[in-house]
Amino acid sequence: MSASAIEISELTKDYRLGFWHNRVRRSLDHLTLKIEDGEIFGFLGPNGAGKTTTLKLLMGLIFPTSGTARICGRPIDDVKVHAEIGYLPEQPYFYDYLTARELLDYYARFANYNSAERRERVNRFLELVGLASAANVQLRKFSKGMLQRVGIAQAILHDPKVVFLDEPMSGLDPIGRREVRDIIHNLKIQGRTVFFSTHILSDAEMLCDRVGVLVEGKLQGVGAPSEMVSMQVNAMEILFELREGLALPATLAAAKSIGGRNHVEVPEEKLYATLDELRKCGARILSVSPVRPTLEDYFLKLAGKKPSAPVPMEAVSR
Amino acid sequence: MSATTGPVAINTFREAVRDRVLYNLIFFALLMMGAAILVGEISIGIERLVIIDLGLTAISIFGLVMSVFLGVGLVSKEIEKRTLYTLLAKPIERWQFLLGKYAGLLITLAVNTAAMTLGLAAALFYVGRPFVRSDASILIAIYFILLEFALITALALFFSCFTSPMLSTLFTIGVFVAGVFAADIRNFGALAKNPALKGIATLVYYLVPNFQNFNAIAAAGHGDHIPASLVGQNTMYAVLYVAVLVLASSAIFSRRNLK
Amino acid sequence: MTSVSAKRISWVAAAGIPLLFAAIAMLQGRIDARIPTPAAGQENLILSSAALIKKFSLGYEPLLADIYWTRSVQYYGDRVGVRGSKFDSLWPLLDITTELDPKMIVAYRFGAIFLAEPGLGGADRPDLAIVLVKRGIAQNPDNWELNADLGFLYYWWMRDYPASSQAYLVGSRNPKAPPWLGMMAARIAQKGGSIQTSRMIWSQIYDTTRDPTVRKRALEMLKGLKAQQDEEQLNQLAETYRQRMGRNPASTEELRSAGLIGGTPVDPDGFPYVFNANGESKLNPKSTVSIPREPKTPPQPFK
After folding, report:
1. Do C34 and B234 touch (CB under 8 A)?
2. Given CA atoms A283, A286, A290, A296 in this order, what sign does their dihedral have?
3. Is B193 in CB contact (< 8 Å) with chain A?
4. Of B223, C122, C221, C293, which one has the fewest beta carbons inside 10 Å?
């Protein structure tokens, strides 16, 4: 197929507010974007930037004020498009009276599988998202993370060409997040196109061929993750333990002690020298991690506002 | 049923079963048992009439409550819980979704009514009455009640496509009451001197669904014959009216932005 | 901008809905043709409480009718035979019951007996009983029992024998009616009132009613009528005895000694009849049978 996987052209969505619907808020402002076949595209932006609005427009859940979009060459208001795509909404919620197996079987009915194929597929995808043991449990007893896994399974159950995932990592523990990353990576290996939104930079950094950054409804830029300003490291943070009675050398006087552990921030070019010094005084290194400006800082910068003081990445990526 | 509407309908029925909607049958069973045992004590000479009247009235009220309250929730619940987002991302048109939800509730109501009919039959059997040919009118009355449910459910579905569940409930009940009083609206028009008022009353009379058409409880109680042509006309009436409502619902819902 | 399918459906709806409504209106016209159009008069508006209750029953009239019927029966049952009882609400109760369910024959027939009955037995309103039964006949033209009840009301309470005969005649034209209606029509037309005719009427009421209260009343009446007939016979025998012996008989035993009767005549409760000082036959004081009284009030004209 010659057409791009996703072609978005001047897509705009206004919401009318107020009792008389007389106030207008622009949620998405002339978004133009092209995503090629087989690409993994990360759609980045702070909460409320218009990522979910974009995805809902593409899914035909809401209708654009102006502009058009095509998926696999078809206009998005053609329901046949939906046979080619999978969609995981933000914080998905499913019929809680069904079991995971029943839910997937229900969704599989909208693709033309016979009952044997359906059964095989449902089992395979339950296995894939790690829910084989909870397959016959009603979804009302599922945790948020488990629901997220069911949601991913239903989005890719029918081998769609293009997969849309809205915040696929949210609600997952670190292991779950790695598993989702693996799933997305496998989709790429199978030649599928993945379009996912996130506000967590590291996810995008690890997976995406390209990312786009959306702030207040406007696309700020598109490019490879490495091109992004925020990928540059400000400093390195070292976490270490000292054996009892030993003193720190003067060069590490800046280190702070919290709960019996010490940590210090050093410029990247001084990392190895500092590690050598720590080795000399017999310290045990617990971790070394880069300190980056947070995504929020980055987005705020794009929006022309002042960034707040940097905080370690893990604090924002709940 | 189409390949997409069918699964939605079945799932809607399954939801009703799993959410214990059919528990109302227990109350119905208790009611019929109580009535069958007590009727001889309180009513003289009309045991069978009381059982039929009470049974049909209960079938009608239980079903109407279900039609209204489940009907207004058919769409709004899926939007509110956002279960609709994933479903509409599948190759299904919105009108197919609506039709499926509607059919699913009708199946639920039909199953529920069938079970209550058996309960009524058991109670009649208990008060010692052999079944006779004129009992067919009881079955026809129940069929009319089902047609009524189909109309009410379509009304609830229609209102819930553009307004909140609470308002939908009010509107549905409002139209139901107006439909019960349909003949009075027409009589009011007949008495009016003002030709404009006359015209409006006549228009309203034909616009509101006429629920008096479907009331055959009295005929059933007395074993009166209900002509087959009336059965045909009532069926046709319900089918046409439901078509209007489902069509209008589809047109409205297909344009709706899902928040 | 909306989707293609939304536009398509909107077009179908815009074109289809007016057509469908046209069909619905036509169909409603057909359905309405089954029931007579209500006369465009003020009386169609909510006037009496029965009509009001009907309006607010939202289609559940039959069950309400059952409730009102049960209340009627209880109301009567609580008051019958109790000193100082009045039955002022019996008419409204039966009125509402039959308004809610015009096919409830048992309510009309109950009213035919107990609305008319005087004293502690009913409301003493034969006129209202006739109104009720006439309404029942209008609503249930193929029910002959109500015609018989109307005939009874004219015969017994109104002493209006032509009207009574007419009512029986109308009932007898019903193919389902038993032959005695026709016989009754002829008999009343010919002879007017007699104990024999009264007994026939009450025994038919006894045979046809399904209501145990009515049946009990009919049985009492039959016993009373039998006793009345017995007394008339005994009085005739007493007259013969007087002519023969020159004095009044003191007891039925004396009639037997004189060879006028073969045994000891007893009333339907089994108590022997007695004679008073004037030689008139009387019921035994221990007997519970009561001779039906003549209606105290002369027949009133009514509309």
Report:
1. no
2. negative
3. no
4. C293
- Neighbouring C-beta atoms of residue A69, cutoff 10 Å: 23
| Local structure of residue B162 (DSSP, 8 states) | T
Chain A touched by C9 (CB under 8 Å) = no
- pLDDT tens for C234-280 read 888 888 888 888 888 877 777 777 777 777 788 888 888 888 877 78
Q: How far apart are alpha carbons A238 and A290 in whole angstroms? A: 9
Within 8 A of B53 by CB-CB distance, chain C residues are: 62-63, 65-66
Element (H, E) at A162: strand A162-166
Go through C231-252 and write b for each residue having 16 or more CB atoms within 10 A of its CB, e for each that does not. Answer: beebeebbeebeeeeeebbeeb
Calculate mean pLDDT across residues C125-139.
Answer: 93
DSSP string, A277-299: HHHHTTPEEEEEEEE---HHHHH
CB pairs under 8 A between B and C: 131
Distance, in angstroms, between C20 CA and closest chain A CA?
28
Q: Does B91 touch chain C (CB under 8 A)?
A: no
The answer to whether the Cβ–Cβ distance between A110 and B92 falls below 8 Å is yes
For residue C52, what are the CA distances in angstroms to A156, B165, C46, C49, C99?
63, 32, 6, 5, 10
Closest CB to B86 among A60, A89, A97: A89
B252 is written with which tokens? 């409205």
Tens digit of each residue's pLDDT (9 = 90 or more) over A222-249: 888 777 655 566 788 888 888 776 777 7
- Domain-wise residue ranges, chain B: 5-254
pLDDT-derived band at A91, boundaries 50, 70, 90? confident
Partners of B50 on chain C (C-beta within 8 Å) are 66
Has residue C300 got a pLDDT over 60? no
Q: What does the pLDDT read at residue A295? A: 58
Q: Looking at chain B, which residue has its C-alpha nearest residue A102?
A: B11
Beta bridge mates, A87: A164
Closest CA to B169 of B81, B73, B59: B73
Structure pTM? 0.75
CA distances for C244 relative to A103, A228, C135, C234, C282, angstroms: 110, 145, 57, 15, 21
Q: Considering only CB atoms, which chain A residues are within 8 Å of B18?
A: 97-98
Asked if C25 has any chain A CB less than 8 Å from its own CB, the reply is no
Segment A187-208, tens digit of pLDDT: 999 999 999 998 777 778 788 8
